[in-house]
Amino acid sequence: MPETTSSSTIADPRFSPVVERLTSEFAAVHHEATVARCVDAARHGALEVTGRATPDLVERIARQHLQVLAMAFAERR
Fold first, then answer.
1. pTM for this structure?
2. Which domain of life is it from (predicted)?
């Protein structure tokens, strides 16, 4: 079954450029759907912790999550 992107991230166009940049940056490691889910999770986390989720903050959080996932995948191989 193909992966689908998160409807929350897609619904807010402010985060589309974030998904695009991170998808390009992690193209060799993660599918776009994984990136979109990380961006969505980062957005929700930022909202819960700080009460706001700017694209800048969400991108930094999502990038860190994607880097950790990439390291975990590399260790499993």
1. 0.83
2. Bacteria
